[in-house]
Design a protein that fits this description.
- The protein is of the alpha+beta class.
- Helices cover 12% and strands 26% of the residues.
- It has 3 helices and 10 strands, in the order H-H-E-E-E-E-E-E-E-E-E-H-E.
- The protein has a 5-stranded antiparallel beta sheet, with no helix packed on it.
- A hairpin with a 4-residue loop joins strand 3 (154-155) and strand 4 (160-162).
- The longest helix has 19 residues, at 2-20.
- The mean pLDDT is 81.
- InterPro entries: C1q_dom, Collagen/C1q_domain, Tumour_necrosis_fac-like_dom.
Length: 260
């Protein structure tokens, strides 16, 4: 029994050895390459390097590249260059937007008790007497020609100016005659009349013209009057009867109104 079992084991081992031997014709096929693995993670940053040595100047020639990298001291400011030619004129820009309205102006002033606008606060006249007769004594001088009368504040027929715009006025007259003549400026704004005289005595050539002039500045209120009149002083009867050419010019104008 035992001998039979041992024989069986030997036969089994022999079969295994026979089966394990193989010739070249029984070789297996190569396997396929495996799939690519996933990328690995980035490595850690390296350590900071040591600080380099500062540049050292040396005698002799130096590399041009090194000189370009070295910063020199700031130089002084150079002279101003020649001005360039004027450039071409640019195109006209578009029209800008309208500006915002300005603030209201100051309140206007009334002139002449509120009845005259600034355009009406004016008065001027200049009239001329060309009559050859001597102006009658102590009477208003009347005139034949009106040079200026804006607006009509002077009455040439009566020889009288009537104030319309209260304010400060200037009045003046000029006369030319070959005889002695006396004229005065009169007004209900004056307490005394202002007289002016020019005499042609017997020692003078009575054919020469005698020139007389005078003037005054007056503060007038509305309705006050101003006029020119002749008066007797040292004139002779022959002077009063003289009929040679004579001329009297009377003028006046507003300097400024009371509201200015």
């Amino acid at each position: 029994m035992g001998g039979y079992y041992g024989l069986a084991v030997l036969v089994g081992v022999a079969l295994l050895l026979t089966t394990g031997q193989c010739d070249v014709g029984c070789r297996g096929m190569d396997g396929h390459a495996g799939e690519k693995g996933a990328p690995g993670r980035n490595g850690w940053p390296g350590l900071k390097g040591e600080k380099g040595e500062p540049a050292v100047m040396r005698d002799g020639l130096m590399d041009a590249g090194v000189l370009l990298r070295l910063k020199g001291e700031e130089g002084s400011r150079g002279l101003q260059g020649v001005m360039g030619a004027k450039g071409y004129r640019g195109d006209l820009g578009t029209v800008g937007l309208p500006g915002i309205p300005g603030r209201p102006g100051a309140e206007g002033k009334s002139i002449g008790h509120g009845q005259h606008s600034p355009q009406q606060a004016r008065s001027a006249f200049s009239v001329m007497r060309t009559d050859h007769s001597y102006p009658p004594f102590n009477q208003r001088v009347t005139y034949q020609n009106t040079v200026v009368n804006k607006p009509v504040d002077f009455n040439a027929a009566t020889g009288q100016f009537t104030c319309r715009v209260p304010g400060v006025y200037y009045f003046t007259f000029h006369s030319v005659a070959k005889v002695s003549i006396c004229l005065r400026i009169a007004s209900d704004a004056l307490s005394n009349k202002l007289g002016f005289c020019d005499y042609n005595t017997a020692n003078h050539n009575r054919n020469h013209d005698q020139v007389l002039s005078g003037g005054v500045v007056l503060q007038l209120t509305a309705g006050q009057k101003v006029w020119l009149e002749s008066f007797k002083d040292q004139q002779t009867d022959a002077d009063a009867r003289d009929t040679r050419e004579k001329q009297i010019i009377f003028s006046g104008f507003l300097l400024f109104s009371n509201s200015e």
